[in-house]
Amino acid sequence: MRGNRGEWWPPGLLRDRLPPGALSAATLFFAALLAVLLLGWLSLATRPAAQSFSAWWPAAGIALGLALRFPRRYLWLLAPAVCLVTLPPQLWADRPLPLAISLSVAAAVEMVVGALILRGRSDTFPSLVTLGDFSRLLLAAFAAAVVYDLVATAAHLVLSGRAEAVTWLVTAAPKHAAGILLVTPLFMGLQPHSRLAGRLETLMQVALTLAVTAYVFLITDDLPVSFLLFVPLVWAATRLTTRQLLLQILMVAVIGSYGSARGRGIFAFDRLGPEAGSILLQVFELTLVTVLISLSLTVGLERETANRLARSEGLFRTNFDASVAGQLMVILQAGAWRVQKHNASAAAILPRLRQGVTGLEDLLGVDATAALAAVMNRLAGGNARLSLTTDSERHLDVSVAAVADHLTGHPVFALHFQDVTEALRVRRLEQAELERAGEVQRALLPEELPVMPGWSIGAVSAPARQVGGDFYDIRLRLPHAVISLGDVMGKGMGAGMLAAATRAALRSNTFETSPDRAVAHAAHVLDNDLSRTAAFVTLTYVLADLTSGEFRFVDAGHGLHFILRGSSGRVERLASEDLPLGLESLWHERRGTLQPGDGLLLVSDGLMDLSGGTVDDLHSAISTCVRELGPVSTQTLIEALCAQAEETLDRDDVTAVALRRDP
């Protein structure tokens, strides 16, 4: 299979996501394999004289680092590649071909084991930021090294003999674990925190590390001086980045391995013996890595935590000072609540802050401070809200949160408040206007239901607000009666004004005017108002002959009027396809007859919402109410239908009118 550039390459490998600034996948792949080859050769070339094993094996760390940069599905490609590049150094070291192949396979297995542990089940690029990350790295390093050791020892036992196998069993695992811990972290995601040391301090620290390392591994053979290395490296762990520390530890390992293999320093192989010297050197390097990386990660996390806290505090101070709402930090001192800090908005709301007044009682008044203190005294955590009225009659909406003073440990309370005095005044004015408009609208409704010989009538109007969009009207001039019910789109003041205008336009028609002409006339009168406000009105207009029981009606998009048949108890719905006022200019007149005991019921869609939300639900509710109540007065029936309106807060206007012919 060919990739985008024509070379043989698994699809998607070049697109694998690597950390920002990393080499491309292909470059990294070949560069790492070349490094494994060269370091494997170098490690064997610098091994102690007459010894079959090397002093250290950093190639294991590079191989594992390469595997970490790719998803696990590419291990099938990486493992054979590592096996191939580690084979030539083994052959160059005059190892028999079967043994060289076995050791190369062991190196590939070692890489696979480490990669599986570090990439985990989620198969994500591993990072080295927390001590938990480092614990996983330690587990992967020792597990992979032990697996390599067991495979290599088994190969030596079969191909080279017991003595050689024992030597590998003792020496292989430490040097491979050290190679992984020294090199693999450089391939992982490290915390991008900034160093504390400047350039001069860094140069001084590196120079000291080099000097001490040279003294320990090239000059002296006094073992206790090995601990001198911890001095400059602890300096690096606390002042430099983790990556810089890793590079210095790697530099120490290179010098230490070289000096020990050449018979110099505290772990000289010719003095301690190759096996003992190699083991001591690797244990020392493992100790260095474990202690110093743990220290560096801990310091880095503390530094990052401190930076986050500083950024958070800076953001808090910025928000505190720039907030358009008043902000106070208050504390209880000597039995009195005092302001520690305030912003400009708080000073604008409480002008005495500019005069240096800090006592809450002086700023808010005794009663407001007592109410606020009661909340703060019982507030252990979280926040609370309350409304206060100051002694200057200012109304404040206050949010209180308890925070701890990191210097004294005493509780400090953050107050976030807004002056709502003007908003409350405007709201009261609007409320008063709505109530007055509601009174006017209610005054336009029929004050008393007219008395009609041989007929009864009932009506209920329950607006959703003080001013509603529903309206009804009843006019009587024997032998005719006019009943109308309408619903203006929307609620509130605007809908109420249009409802009153529609009622007035309908009332301008005479009793002799047919329903279709009456509705058309009202639509003509309201045309400009409806067009300007983009509103419409659904309407039912009924003209009834009280002598014969005949009625004529127009349905302008309303569709919620019913015939209640007294003889059978059936409920029949009357509807048309005509559109509301504001959307149509032509309406069709329909006719019907009310027999003795029959009734005509007109309702608004608010009652339909209370009944279930559909016309069928409303039809069923009306039928049930008529059947359960039996022979009751028309007003009782209407009130029973609309009973839920007084119990429901979030609802539409509810209006119903009924005209019934006596049996």
TrEMBL record:
<protein>
    <submittedName>
        <fullName>Uncharacterized protein</fullName>
    </submittedName>
</protein>
<dbReference type="GO" id="GO:0016791">
    <property type="term" value="F:phosphatase activity"/>
</dbReference>
<dbReference type="InterPro" id="IPR052016">
    <property type="entry name" value="Bact_Sigma-Reg"/>
</dbReference>
<dbReference type="InterPro" id="IPR001932">
    <property type="entry name" value="PPM-type_phosphatase-like_dom"/>
</dbReference>
<dbReference type="GO" id="GO:0005886">
    <property type="term" value="C:plasma membrane"/>
</dbReference>
<dbReference type="InterPro" id="IPR036457">
    <property type="entry name" value="PPM-type-like_dom_sf"/>
</dbReference>
<dbReference type="InterPro" id="IPR007895">
    <property type="entry name" value="MASE1"/>
</dbReference>
<dbReference type="Pfam" id="PF05231">
    <property type="entry name" value="MASE1"/>
</dbReference>
<keyword id="KW-0472">Membrane</keyword>
<dbReference type="Pfam" id="PF07228">
    <property type="entry name" value="SpoIIE"/>
</dbReference>
<keyword id="KW-1133">Transmembrane helix</keyword>
<keyword id="KW-0378">Hydrolase</keyword>
<keyword id="KW-1003">Cell membrane</keyword>
<keyword id="KW-0812">Transmembrane</keyword>
